[in-house]
Amino acid sequence: MWEIATNFTEVLGALLALLWGLAARWPGRVLVWSGLLAVVVQVVLVGLTWPTGWDYVSNRVVLALPLMLAPAALVVVVSLPRLEPRWPVHAAAVGALLDFYVVFVDRPAPPYTVNVIVLWAILLGATGLLWWRQGRIRALPVLAVVVVVLGGAVFYLQRASVLPDRLDMASMTNLDWGGGPVGTGHEHAMRNVTDLTGPSGRPDAAFTLVAQEKRITLSSGATVDAWTFNGQVPGPELRVRQGDLVQVTLVNHLKSEGVTVHWHGLDVPDAEDGVAGVTQDAVRPGGTYVYRFRATQAGSFWYHTHQDSYLAVDRGLFGPLTVLPPEATGLDLPVMAHEWTTPQGVRTAFGTSDTQRRVAVAPGTPVRLRLINTSDNTVWGAADKDPRTFVLTGTPFTVAAIDGTDLVGPTPLRDVRLPMGVGGRYDLTFTMPGHPVRLTDLADPGGGLLLGEGPAPAVRSDLPDFDPAGYGAGVRSPFKAFDRRFKLILDDGPAFYDGSLSFPSTINNLLFPDTPTLMVREGDAVETTFVNRGHNDHPMHLHGHHALVLSRNGEPVRSWWTDSLEILPGQTYTVAFHADNPGVWMDHCHNLKHAFQGMVMHLAYEGVHSPFQVGHKTINRPE
Ligand code: C2O
Ligand code: CU
Q1: CA triplet 183, 186, 188: central angle to 5 degrees?
Q2: Residues around the ion ligand 2 (C-beta < 5 A)
Q3: 359, 420, 447: which is closest to 562 by C-alpha?
Q4: Share of the chain above pLDDT 90, in %
Q5: d(CA 590, CA 609)
Q6: Is the CB of 602 under 6 A from ligand 1?
Q7: Strands 495-497 and 388-393: what pairing?
Q8: Does the reported pTM lie above 0.85?
Q9: Per-residue pLDDT for 386 more than 80?
Q10: Is residue 392 predicted with pLDDT exceeding 90?
């Protein structure tokens, strides 16, 4: 409901401006009354979206509607019934156009002070001019002025959106202190990101990852010119025991591409986080880099490059990272859901299996499938807002863990669909029955993973969605009071980014590097609220921390710890985390195309300094 109504409110202003324009040119009752009717419809539509929450209508109520209503009222009072004078009708066209500009093009986020001043100055100025000329304004000169002003604005915006050649991570200007004590920013840094390293000593588990090009053949025979770790996609599973000191040596044998390794979901020390331009420089071809961290969290994680990640993760620079608890038994299998670009088209796959793959499992075996969604859902023009959806058929099962953290009191499930945001992980556990069990990606109902002997069970897609918000007993929140609260409005609209025009997704109507840097002090309890006011889903991923989900759309949930939270259009989530891992951390949408187009911000601890740079003249392109 919200989505349909809100989408209509975005375009109605343009339609109305056209109606008023025609009515001013060819005055007639039908046009004028249609215009007035459209105004009423706009008010009703905004009324329909009102219950979704103030954050979803504030831009309409505070900014857009008054611009439309005030001149429309003038038409009623001054120009009816004879439709003379005509200037109020012209003014109404200007007001409707401004409404369209606000809700469709500009999409401002609070506070709206500057927007109010500018928009009303335009409306009042135009109305004054029209009144002075009695609405008899010649179209050609007006058109010429509009074209010159608009052209100038577009040219300026295009130039201004080009990213700088060199941007110091330490020079971000939009610092948000979340209502807590304001500190010194980055200037008086006591600690450097590069000092925040993992422990020294002899590693319990040591791996080498070699980034290299390789042509990969999927099970269907389709081929991928992949970028791989160790010549395989996904990269080798790094399987360690909880508590292990892990050492990974990265070697870059790619011909002309930098690489890093980020440990998605593992809250490692900042210098080990593997983000080009934030925690290290991208490793150049021929270079190496050593990561060290202690694997304190048992659970399902994954690793991937964080250099050109939109391009490079898609092409294969990722793999599973499993931290086993001491008591692990049975079949324990990471399943990485990916989509590959091949000359034969896009292939939906688990790993490299884009056809059905069978695995023998003896009945009675405890099974844990570590389902990991690695696939950017914006790459292939699929509807951005649809999360990938999986079905496990043939057995009751539990979602034992989400995002590498065990749930409290999960209960058996059956006949549900599992929608998952990008970057997220669900651990599905069950005891192998005497007949086959099948895991399917609904994007490819014929494929998937088949466990056990016998005919594959049929897959149904008409099932209710699994919803973690109402599942299990929920974590009892350890948060009492908050030192800082942040609010982030997610939206999308037409804009330039780095010189090109597209439909980027924004945070508080800003794109990196203008997005806010969330500033905290070590020890803070931090609350963050995400409001998705746009058209796309945004799996928001904060590095270095797990956040506890507290509420959705104002309703309390069965809380769970997350590091990749799927936020659908029309959803507001409030989460909380402890600022207990000092550093400068990326916080971004894991629909990597969105990140690539500027949906990136950072969490920074007061007094911690990143010496790294991003920008066209540096090697670092983390997105
Ligand atoms: Cu999966 Cu910023 O990463
Ligand atoms: Cu996004």
Answers
A1: 80
A2: 505, 538, 589, 591, 594
A3: 420
A4: 87
A5: 25
A6: no
A7: unpaired
A8: yes
A9: no
A10: yes
